Amino acid sequence: MTDPRQAGSSAAAQDDDFRRAFDLLPSVSDGLRADPAPPGDGSPATRLHTDADTVERDLIRLVLTIVELLRQLMERTALHRVDQEDLTEDQEERIGLTLMILQDRMAELCERYDLTPEDLNLDLGPLGSLLPRN
């Protein structure tokens, strides 16, 4: 049978180990803020910085980033289909007009929320940027 004094000291040692493990984690007492890692140091990406005052703008930025990515993919697909002579002249006109309207709407939304095209380009660390740089 085990001595109750040893069991108590063992539990205390486990508690100490548990506390030390959590001491290694970054503090989240000020929301989800974490100090960003220096670029290229091989450490994992930090969490999103959320702030109650900027959450709407941050959400708009994320949504517009996804829309811009899809817009660029559609544009490339359309250009490829034009090069392959896969479309009729009317289809080419409609696609071209649609892509121009979408680009204008994106510019309007970016202006409304004080965002630049660079703001929509997420840095994916070692993978590079999300959107191609012009």
Automatic annotation (TrEMBL):
Domain of life: Bacteria
Main subcellular localisation: other
Keywords: Gas vesicle
Pfam families cross-referenced by the UniProt entry: GvpK
Compartments in which it is found: Gas vesicle
InterPro entries: GvpK
Residue ranges of the region described as Disordered: 27-50
Family indicated by similarity: Belongs to the gas vesicle GvpK family.
Name listed for the protein in its UniProt record: Gas vesicle protein K
Upper lineage: Bacteria, Bacillati, Actinomycetota, Actinomycetes, Kitasatosporales
